[in-house]
Automatic annotation (TrEMBL):
Coiled-coil blocks: none
Name of this protein: Transporter
Listed InterPro entries: P-loop_NTPase, T4SS_component, TraG-D_C
Domain named TraD/TraG TraM recognition site: residues: 31-93
UniProt cross-references to SUPFAM superfamilies, sorted A to Z: P-loop containing nucleoside triphosphate hydrolases
Family matches, as Gene3D superfamilies: P-loop containing nucleotide triphosphate hydrolases (3.40.50.300)
One Pfam family cited in the UniProt record for this chain: TraG-D_C
Length: 99
């Protein structure tokens, strides 16, 4: 399913909808961990849905973790500024080849 951008986008749409719906219905929080975040946001539909999830997460008592190898992976990514500005906490580790 990850090889088909349309199917992956639709799956994400459904999953994020269910996460928010269940959280609100049960008055419970949630945690979504997206490792290798860059690979997800290259899909336009996923990009849009992840951005929407991040903006709604705090209202639903949720936490979204976006994991990247390097902050520069967001260069040129659609909605990159929105992803960063909607994060409550950024944890950046030094790298030996940092710019």
């Amino acid at each position: 399913i990850t090889q088909n951008p349309k199917d992956l986008g639709l799956l994400a749409y459904y999953l994020f909808y269910k996460i928010l719906e269940e959280s609100r219905k049960n008055d419970s929080g949630f945690l979504v961990f997206l490792d290798e975040f860059k690979s997800y946001v290259e899909n336009d539909l996923l990009n849009t849905k992840i951005n929407a999830l991040i903006t709604q997460a705090r209202k639903a008592n949720g936490v979204v973790v976006l994991a990247l190898q390097d902050i520069y992976q967001l260069s040129g990514v659609k909605n990159a500024h929105s992803f960063l500005s909607n994060m409550g906490t950024l944890i950046l580790y030094p790298q030996k080849n940092a710019r």
